[in-house]
């Protein structure tokens, strides 16, 4: 069975955080050109998914999976194959209930050890049974990759699979990190293959000047713009 090129953590122009400038169809078009076969839009606290988008993706031979990056007890959690009720989860207890009632969903810990309040850190270990996979973040250089190393160690300790994503905020890095999954183009089969670690992590090293200078500057600039346009 051949490998599917997947991008399972994507923010879009409809993200309430308002720091992504590309529409969903623009993202699908680019993903198609770059050979992706599976995508999941995972905007902050809202599910951006519709029959029209699904059909548009299908017209490009792409399977679109509904998803969300939900803030739960101030921490980010990725829920894939999410139903609309996932928007209402506010505690890890509720996440556990949701998972019990929606066994077809797939829960990923995004960038769990990166600095910042939104990263799971200890909450990942305290709730490890809720998670199906750990994310290997795009944001690293060859030398500065300590947060991902910690994530991989934890995944090994708990025998969890690792997936890599580009957490699309800055579009030019969309293809910098992705996961190849040996599965049929079917949601169930894709999650099953990830659980069985039939995956290949592709995550290119950033240049040090991108990591330390250009990307932090660009993200800071976008925050500045957002602050003034939201006023
Ligand atoms: Fe994200």
Protein architecture, described:
The chain is globular, with a radius of gyration of 17 Å. The longest helix has 23 residues, at 208-230. Helix 2 (51-59) links the parallel strand 2 (38-41) and strand 3 (63-72). The protein is built from seven helices and nine strands; from the N terminus they run βαβαββαβαβαββαβα. The mean pLDDT is 96. Strands 7-6-5-4-3-2-1-8-9 form a nine-stranded mixed beta sheet, sandwiched between helices. Helix content is 34%, strand content 22%. The protein has 231 residues and is of the alpha/beta class. It has helices at residues 24-33, 51-59, 92-101, 122-126, 146-157, 187-195, 208-230, and strands at residues 3-10, 38-41, 63-72, 75-80, 106-109, 133-136, 162-164, 177-182, 199-203. Bound molecules: fe (ii) ion. Fe (ii) ion binds next to loops.
Secondary structure: elements and pairs:
Elements: E1 3-10, H1 24-33, E2 38-41, H2 51-59, E3 63-72, E4 75-80, H3 92-101, E5 106-109, H4 122-126, E6 133-136, H5 146-157, E7 162-164, E8 177-182, H6 187-195, E9 199-203, H7 208-230
Parallel strand pairs: 1-2, 2-3, 5-6, 6-7
Antiparallel strand pairs: 1-8, 3-4, 4-5, 8-9
Fe (ii) ion is lined by residues 9, 11, 69, 110, 167.
Number of strands: 9
C-alpha end-to-end distance: 52 Å
Overall pLDDT level: 96
Label the structural class.
alpha/beta
Small molecules (ligands, ions, cofactors) in the structure: fe (ii) ion
> Helical residue percent?
25-40%
- Count of alpha/pi helices: 7
User: Whole-number radius of gyration?
Assistant: 17 Å
Shape: globular
- Beta-strand percent range: 15-25%
Largest sheet: 9 strands, mixed
Succession of helices and strands: EHEHEEHEHEHEEHEH
Poorly predicted spans: none
Q: Strand arrangement, largest sheet? A: 7-6-5-4-3-2-1-8-9
């Amino acid at each position: 069975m051949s490998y599917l090129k997947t991008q399972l953590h994507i923010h879009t122009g409809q993200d309430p955080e308002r720091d992504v400038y590309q529409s969903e169809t623009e993202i699908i078009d680019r993903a198609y050109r770059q050979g992706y076969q599976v995508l999941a839009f995972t905007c902050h606290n809202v599910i951006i998914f519709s029959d029209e988008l699904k059909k548009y993706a299908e017209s490009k031979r792409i399977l679109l999976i509904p998803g969300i990056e939900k803030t739960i007890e101030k921490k980010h959690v990725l829920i894939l194959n999410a139903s609309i009720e996932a928007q209402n989860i506010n505690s890890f207890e509720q996440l556990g209930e949701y998972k019990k009632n929606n066994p077809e969903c797939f829960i990923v810990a995004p960038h769990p050890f990166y600095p910042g309040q939104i990263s799971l850190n200890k909450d990942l270990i305290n709730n490890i049974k809720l998670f199906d996979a750990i994310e290997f973040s795009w944001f690293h250089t060859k030398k500065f990759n300590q947060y991902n190393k910690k994530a991989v160690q934890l995944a090994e300790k708990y025998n969890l699979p690792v997936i890599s994503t580009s957490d699309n905020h800055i579009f030019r890095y969309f293809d910098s990190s992705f996961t190849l999954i040996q599965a049929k183009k079917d949601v169930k089969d894709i999650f099953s293959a990830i659980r069985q670690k039939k995956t290949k992590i592709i995550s290119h090293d950033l240049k040090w000047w991108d990591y330390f200078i250009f990307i932090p500057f660009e993200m800071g600039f976008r925050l500045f713009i957002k602050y003034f346009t939201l006023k």
